[in-house]
Amino acid sequence: MPLIRLDRFICSQLPGVSRSGVKELCKKGQISVNGETERSPERKIDPYTAEVAVLGRRITYKEHLYIMLNKPAGVVCATRDGLSQTVIELLPPELRRQGLFPAGRLDKDTVGFVLITDDGELAHRMLSPRSHVPKTYFVRLEKPICPGAGEAFAAGLTLLDGTKCLPAELICSQKPDECTVVLHEGMFHQIKRMFEALDNNVIFLKRIAIGGVKLDNNLPYGGVRELKSDEVKALTSAE
Ligand code: URA
């Protein structure tokens, strides 16, 4: 791992702390490296092994952040938007690092699991057309699901505009107008368009899993938490 400057390291790990802020903290003797007060913000350190503390608080280096958000309705999956609140704006200040973006989009009225990260490589792999990382959705419909819908999804449904979908799973529930759908691709408004092709309408849509990672039931709408290391591993190794 190449060495990096102490001020760059601190700014990358502590959102809201600027280079001039680090300089000030160094001047006041409030930063230590490996237990020794460090007064030079230019000091080069190995981010993985150096023990850096700011105001006595140790910083654990994270190259990337992986954040699970339970997206509420009315919020857009974008980094910036002139009109609506974005998923990035829901992040608490301590997680608002530079470079974070939503890896994949849900419609404004769709709720549930959005992965927010600054790991471009992972996002690219998850979102590329050749990636078939399954995404699981809970769906409530306007009308009961028609007979044969499961077979139609499994065979690869054709949308009203002629687009052919990859095979998908439709799992019925106790209620005739509710189901779970697993997609292996992510076309625009895909689930809504799939049910339109079956003469039905989606009235509620929630993403409940990405790959093998389930949305945490303890997260309220708008709630976030960092992924655990086994969850990150499950996503980074998913095809
Ligand atoms: N399918 C949709 O129709 N909308 C979403 O937000 C996600 C999947």
Automatic annotation (TrEMBL):
Its EC number is 5.4.99.-. SUPFAM superfamilies: Alpha-L RNA-binding motif, Pseudouridine synthase. The keyword Lipoprotein does not apply. It holds the Pfam family S4. InterPro entries: PsdUridine_s_RsuA/RluB/E/F_cat (IPR042092), PsdUridine_synth_cat_dom_sf (IPR020103), PsdUridine_synth_RsuA/RluA (IPR006145), PsdUridine_synth_RsuA/RluB/E/F (IPR000748), PsdUridine_synth_RsuA/RluB_CS (IPR018496), RsuA_PseudoU_synthase (IPR050343), S4_RNA-bd (IPR002942), S4_RNA-bd_sf (IPR036986). Residues 4-64 form the RNA-binding S4 domain. It is an enzyme of class 5 (isomerase). Keywords: Isomerase, RNA-binding. One of its GO terms (molecular function) is RNA binding. SMART domains: S4. It comes from the Bacteria. Belongs to the pseudouridine synthase RsuA family. NCBIfam families: pseudouridine synthase. This is Pseudouridine synthase. It comes from Candidatus Faeciplasma pullistercoris. The lineage of its organism: Bacteria, Bacillati, Bacillota, Clostridia, Eubacteriales.
